[in-house]
Amino acid sequence: MAKKKATKKAATKKKSSAKKKDMLLVSSKTKEALKGKGYNVSSDALEAMNEYVYWLVDQAQKKCTANGRKTIRPYDILA
């Protein structure tokens, strides 16, 4: 019995240049909070808020590291 020759398939899908980040916010709760005072919410508002949350996390990690800690505390986020 002849062995099948292994071949690599060319990637048919284009890879996007920016990797989409996981959503850290609960969409329904966030939209509810934003609409709470009668405002409309654009389709990309949640993505912008999600990016901001990632930025806050990054800043908190940097502050924590700069202070020689491995535990992120509220003042690392809120200050």
From TrEMBL:
The protein, known as: Transcription factor CBF/NF-Y/archaeal histone domain-containing protein
Organism: Halobacteriovorax marinus
Region (Disordered) location: 1-22
GO MF terms, alphabetically ordered: protein heterodimerization activity
Skewed-composition ranges (Basic residues): 1-18
